[in-house]
# Entry
Amino acid sequence: MQRHQLFIDGKFSDAASGAWFDTYNPFTGKVWSQVAAGGAADVERAVQAAHRAFTTGVWPALTASQRGALLRRLGDLIARDADKLAQIEVRDNGKLIAEMRGQLNYIPQWFYYFGGLADKIQGAVIPLDKKDYFNFTRHEPLGVVAAITPWNSPLLLTAWKIAPALAAGCTVVLKPSEFTSVSSLEFVKLFEEAGFPPGVVNVVTGYGKDVGTPLVEHPLVRKITFTGSDATGRMINQSAAKQFKRVSLELGGKSPNIVFNDANLEDAVNGAVSGIFAATGQTCIAGSRLLLQDDIHDAFLEKLTALASTARMGDPLDAGTQVGPITTRQQYDKVLGYIDIAKQDGAKLIMGGAPATRAECGNGWFIEPTIFSGVSNRMRIAQEEVFGPILSVIRFKDEEEAVAIANDSAYGLGAGVWTADIGRAFRMSSRIQAGTVWVNTYRAVSYMSPFGGYKDSGTGRENGMDAIHEYLQVKSVWINTGAATGNPFTMR
Ligand code: NAD
# Structure
């Protein structure tokens, strides 16, 4: 059995406790590797290493251009090892090899983009209203960053956090999900090869309460960047507030995918499938509420079920597979529980609704792509994030009602609008309360475009130029260019 150690101060080591935990392959349902079970002592060591690396030695002495060059070199190494990293993620997470190859070939762009941004962090010279002063601003790195990631897209979300944090000049302690830690431990090996000094990036694996809590509470951590559930995000926000730490939170969603009667229905059907069955629905931006205008409702559902029922399920390492397993046994049980809840609340099951028993699914944690129609937006299946291949279909009569239903949610992460009417596209994109609105497409992301939530979907933005400011703080510097110091008892 393979074992994967913690990575602290440039070296791999066992956890202080000497304990390990199992990590499973969701396709076989079996343990495939063990990971070091970190705790508070390991967090202490990692944060001290990150703090040393931030304050002394090579890292703070690098020019911004040199930092950028390191990031770009790292991007090249990720591209070189893309296939190896993709294979690990498939085994540990159950993501499709087809999706992971695409992701791993794209992830280097985060390091090229933010590497390029590193030496474009500029302050300003302020043309003051006061004589005899020269005033300018500096954008300085916040310090040690705690980066906490969920199980559904470990490497992609790690890139979203680490690339801007390092470009800003911060150092990082990464805590991946206990369900999918292995890819981060493999990924971190590339940092040394790229030439990053020890301590700049550290990885402490373990459970939320054992590693996440002491990391969030550590006084030397100055910024927390978290992706995960709203419940954990809320706890982290409260804890961080006690020490006035900067926080960015990328949380859950219950995103509406809205189809008007003038839309290209073939495209919209494709977008509805991509919204909920891609990645087995285990994405924060899943279009889990499909809003259909009355007069296309029945025809649309016919086309949708026809396409969804062709989805090939099976081994995620097979490039032809389209729907893989649920990543964890706990999540599998949770998704099945929501199928029962939807039935009890009166939703009408029109497709799936059970574990997949097809031979290609072996002993994996598979659930059939599932569609409920006749859903009212007040049902739990329409309000709570399921994080699985379960689609709720809701009818609407006009634009007003579509907006009202779309916004009747605690969440506000993403939304899709399908229409041929350009005016409506603009109106809808301004009226929907969500951090991202896609028109006539769904599930598109880029390192260049800001991503984040409205309402309970979180705070702060990843990707794009805005993201780097999440890791910087502004200092104002005043230089007296005059001769006299003035009256000491009045404001200058
Ligand atoms: P989770 O909140 O259970 O865990 C996320 C991470 O937080 C894990 O690493 C976990 O160990 C850690 N953690 C748990 N308790 C902690 C604590 N007390 N202190 C600090 N860290 C702690 O979420 P999950 O089940 O791994 O991920 C699924 C969730 O993530 C879904 O709700 C999904 O919508 C959300 N998500 C959001 C985005 C986004 O960008 N908005 C992207 C992907 C996933």
Q: What stands out?
A: Residues 148-153, 175, 177-178, 208-209, 212-213, 216, 227-229, 232, 235-236, 250-253, 284, 385, 387, 413, 453, 458 surround nicotinamide-adenine-dinucleotide (CB under 6 Å). Residues 113 and 279 are 26 Å apart (CA to CA).
